[in-house]
Design brief:
The radius of gyration is 16 Å and the shape is globular. By secondary structure, it is an alpha/beta fold. Helix content is about 40%, strand content about 20%. It has six helices and eight strands; from the N terminus they run βαβαβββαβααβαβ.
């Protein structure tokens, strides 16, 4: 898979790391950047876009509040023909798509809220349920669930299926993930075809 480096310096604010806005700005670049290219964020600080980004943040939040009731869980096909559940937040047919990958807590309301905000910014968003319905707020239990996750299966089956599902209604599909989902974003970008870009939020410690 080819790899392109995208300079996101002008999109990141010092002291402010808004996941949705970063991805929205990245996707605006990647959506017409060439099929199969993989953008890698190289953040540096520049405050020239501060007001625009904050306006986007408020607009996305307000829209997400109004649209949350329209978004729901669905079943989609894994790459092996099995079934995986996920949370779908739609912006409309033909819009670019974003796969949103959970932290080690599971597919909780916070991750669903990220998907809602991505949809409010104009992207179809799908968050696959990699823990098959299990959610926790306890670090020990979260660590146990993450340790028991089949990472190859999650990448090559669940996430690959999510990418294919979203590609049916989205002109391009990117992947973003947080913590554990950040590591899976890197794995998915390396292993799954059809991903236009990946944005891992740390994911793999140095």
């Amino acid at each position: 898979m080819g790899s392109d480096v995208v300079d996101l310096g002008k999109y990141i604010l010092p002291g402010e790391f808004d996941h949705l806005l970063l991805f929205a700005k990245l996707s605006a670049h990647v959506v017409d950047h060439g099929a199969g290219s993989f953008g890698v964020a190289q953040p540096r600080c520049n405050v020239s876009h501060r007001r625009d980004l904050l306006r986007m943040q408020q607009t996305a939040h307000d829209a997400a509040v109004g649209m949350a009731a329209d978004n729901d869980m669905l079943d989609f096909k894994r790459a092996d023909g099995g079934t995986c559940r996920g949370y779908l937040a739609e912006a409309g047919k033909g819009k670019p798509g974003v796969i949103v990958l959970q932290e080690w807590w599971g597919l909780n309301d916070q991750i669903k809220g990220v998907a809602d905000r991505v949809a409010a910014a104009g992207y179809n968003a799908l968050a696959p349920d990699l823990y098959k319905g299990r959610v926790t707020q306890k670090p020990d239990e979260a660590n146990h669930m993450m340790s028991g996750l089949d990472f190859v299966g999650a990448s090559d089956q669940d996430i690959a299926g999510a990418v294919k599902h979203l590609a049916a209604s989205s002109r391009k599909v990117g992947v973003m993930g947080f913590c554990m989902g950040g590591a899976l974003t890197i794995a998915a970008a390396a292993r799954i075809s059809g991903i236009a870009c990946g944005v891992p939020f740390y994911g793999v410690p140095p």
